[in-house]
Design goal:
The protein is an alpha/beta fold. It has helices at 31-34, 43-55, 67-79, 93-109, 131-135, 163-176, 200-212, 235-238, 265-269, 290-305, 308-323, 352-361, 383-406, and strands at 10-14, 17-20, 25-28, 84-90, 118-122, 155-157, 180-185, 189-190, 196-197, 216-220, 244-247, 259-264, 332-338, 341-346, 364-365, 372-375.
Length: 407
């Protein structure tokens, strides 16, 4: 913390731009941690928030209910894969994962099965920074290794892609499925673990295995949901319906904090009982916050009225062509694109602060991490701004590669 440069002071946002206190305007290449899919300050979202602010900015969701949450739950169920139809609102992605894990564990407990208390996650996974969510992240990545001994030890295995890897996965499930409540996976793209991709076919086969071994499947669409991978939800590309899905980030277009954990009727019905102990005991203070619900409604309106998925397809095509020259640079291991996600993977990224400062100097906001330089721009980015963003990446990666060769 002593050596990291101080954060840049921001005074305004507009469209795809971040305005700094010194007057510089940066093209946001990461959509404020993947949330601002419609850009900043979209008038439709702003108007919806203003209307809601004037009538009811917040009311507790315990013993009370309100129309913005009830109608949002219906809208989400209508657009999610068939069978997902019961919604539990919270206020952050990590909490939505905690709730999903509670649901999965208690699903078995409410049926008298006490042996299924572990979860199966995957290497390079990231599901959040709260204690339960950290336990299903890759234990050797990032800060999570610091908390070994505190975190519940879960089963973290390689994410299978090939036939041989699925044979190993199948063998693991034969040995351990009986002690596990669920498998949790980020569909198609593992985000903060390094933007690592897998195919829809691999996701579908993971689903087949969970059914074969009577395991629940939790799909974490917090990062991939709402168009980022080219379809409204990444799960669609595999043709699967998970038992539980988690949503956040772009749910409100980045305007407010809101999350949802959505389950099938079969999950929900195990909690219907005269016994108080069968209820799901979780109650975030700001769950179903009306302002957040209003922003989410407005964001869904924009997906219906503006060509967001077509814009993602255009971004995907541009990223694939524009980032390809990086592949030939010494030190570049891979260039990969999925939807509105572009990744340049390096063999050694130790100069992160240098990368960040060079990108700011070029007028773009790009934040490398791990071993990757990546972009996830707002879907509304124009051609000239997108070109400036990708040209900056090609240029800075080229500078890095030359510096590396010289040293």
């Amino acid at each position: 913390m002593k050596t990291t440069p101080p954060p840049l002071p921001v005074v305004a946002t507009d469209g795809i731009h971040i305005e700094l206190a010194d007057g510089r305007r940066l093209i946001d290449g990461v959509s404020s941690w993947w949330t601002a899919c419609h850009g900043y300050n979209h008038p439709h979202i702003q108007q919806a928030l203003q209307r809601q602010l004037e009538t009811m900015p917040h009311v507790m969701f315990g013993g009370l209910a309100h129309e913005p949450a009830l109608s949002l739950a219906r809208r989400l169920c209508d657009i999610l894969p068939d069978g997902l139809e019961r919604v539990f609102f919270s206020d952050s992605g990590s909490v939505s994962v905690e709730i999903a894990m509670k649901m999965a564990l208690q699903y078995w407990l409410n049926q008298g099965v006490a042996s299924r208390k572990k979860f199966i996650g995957f290497q390079y996974a990231y599901h959040g920074d709260t204690i339960g969510a950290m336990s299903v992240c890759d234990p050797d990545e990032g800060m999570h290794a610091l908390f070994s001994g505190l975190l519940t030890e879960q089963h973290i295995v390689p994410l299978p892609r090939t036939d041989a890897e699925f044979q190993a996965f199948d063998g693991f499930l034969k040995r351990h499925a009986g002690e596990c409540a669920a498998v949790i996976v980020e569909p198609l793209v593992q985000g903060a673990g390094g933007m690592k991709f897998h195919s829809p076919e691999a996701l579908a086969k993971i689903r087949e295995h969970t059914k074969r071994y009577d395991l629940l499947l939790i799909v974490d669409e917090i990062m991939t949901g709402f168009g980022r991978t080219g379809t409204l939800f990444a799960s669609e590309q595999a043709g699967i319906t998970p038992d539980i899905v988690t949503l956040s980030k772009a749910l409100t277009g980045g305007a407010m904090a809101l999350a949802a954990t959505v389950a099938t009727r079969a999950i929900f019905e195990t909690f219907l009982s005269d016994s108080p102990g069968a209820a799901l005991m979780h109650g975030p203070t700001f769950m179903a916050n009306p302002l957040g619900c209003a922003a989410a409604h407005a964001s869904l309106d924009l997906f219906e009225s503006e060509p967001r998925l077509e814009q993602v397809a255009i971004i995907e095509s541009h990223l694939a062509a524009a980032l390809e020259p990086c592949r030939s640079r010494p030190g570049v291991l891979d260039v990969r694109v999925k939807g509105a996600i572009g990744v340049v993977q390096l063999d050694n990224l130790t100069e992160i602060d240098w990368f960040k400062s060079r990108f700011v100097e070029k007028g773009v906001w790009v934040r490398p991490f791990g071993d990757i330089v990546y972009v996830m721009p707002p879907f509304v980015i124009g051609e000239s701004e997108l070109t400036r963003l990708t040209d900056s990446i090609v240029s800075v990666v080229g500078e890095w590669s030359a510096r590396r060769s010289e040293s």
